[in-house]
Amino acid sequence: MILVVTPTPPDSPNGNGVTARRWAGILRDLGYRAELAREYRSGDYDLLVALHAVKSAAAVRAFHADHPAAPVVIALTGTDLYPDLETTGVDPAVLALADRLVVLQPNGAEQVPAQMRDRVRVIYQALTIPAGSAAHAPPDPDCFEVAFLAHLRPVKDPLLLAAAMRHLPASSRIRVTHAGEARDPALASEAKAASDSSAAEGRYHWVGPLPRDEALRVLARSRLLAVTSAHEGGANVVTEAIALGVPVISSRIPGSTGLLGADYPGYFRPGDSADLARVLLAAEQDREFYQSLCERCAALRDLADPARERAAWAALLSELTL
Predict the structure, then answer these.
(1) Same domain, 68 and 160
(2) What is the CATH number of the domain that holds 166?
């Protein structure tokens, strides 16, 4: 039996919950029994997969105490890795208990102490697209819709897009649909004000949290995905966009350059609303630039292939002789 621990409820719509459910499904498809939980509880387990080194530290310690010979896999998230492990509060002793450390893009390995990097494995996140699903949602012909799927947390810099709208000319047809939970009351208040404000000229609309299938429908029908985060471990929504054929623009952060490539053309300076507006306007009005985004993301489609993610887990488990 494999125990998969996630610091959020296993049915949560946020990134950790989505990832934990998908990984548990992969483990079951590979022939293993897998149990999802928010914390460690005693049981007859052969392996622990823990999402988040900081928030799952107690589970890692308790599991190792009860099963000292059983392997431990820790998946390092963005809030573990960036800006660095010491700042985020990762306990080196907890990392030392891990037989393997999973990161979601290659740059993540650079944050791990050199003496532990031989334990690091990169597993790109994937998206399975059922037939007749959100992948077939048509774009709105009346605007250039930009999807922004991010909960309102400071690390996501969730108000940057609303600020960028004020830099756009009146002729722009860009409209932002922002879906995400109000994790921070102050940010939620500002997002609501920006959504209602005439200063944003109706271009930014925060719709609050959406069920996963509806959020994917927003993404699939959009002409662009925007990622404004200050830090990401390797945003699930980026590989979802790639799988759905939606080009991406992102703040230039390691979590995105690790997925999209250092020379990807769709970056803007983190926290710079004017630079974000520049890239948005180029995507809307410069056909050659927009096509370059589409082509680069299409070339990365293999990263989001569920078969690739499944094979990566099979290889990792084989290394642990499970």
Answers:
(1) no
(2) 3.40.50.2000
How many distinct structural domains can be found in the chain? 2
Count Cα neighbours of 212 within 13 Å in the Cβ-side half-sphere: 15
Write out pLDDT tens, residues 112-146: 999 999 999 999 999 877 655 556 678 989 999 99
Beta bridge partners of 102: 75, 121
Are 193 and 253 members of one domain?
Answer: yes
Which strands sit side by side in the sheet containing 224-227, from one edge to the other? 204-208, 174-179, 144-149, 224-227, 248-251, 267-268
Beta strands at 267-268 and 248-251: parallel, antiparallel or unpaired: parallel
Same domain, 199 and 277: yes
Q: What would the pLDDT profile of 60-100 be if each residue is shown by its tens digit?
A: 999 999 999 999 999 999 999 999 999 999 999 999 999 99
In this structure, are 95 and 231 located in the same domain? Answer: no
Residue 217 sits in the same domain as residue 284: yes
- The dihedral built from the CA positions of residue 301, 26, 155 and 204, taken in this order, carries a sign that is positive
pTM of the model: 0.91
For CA atoms 244, 250, 252, 254, the dihedral sign is negative
Note the pLDDT tens digit of each residue in 257-311.
999 999 999 999 999 999 999 999 999 999 999 999 999 999 999 999 999 999 9
> Could you give the 3-state DSSP secondary structure of residue 108?
helix
**185: domain range?**
134-304
Q: 179 has which bridge partners?
A: 149, 208
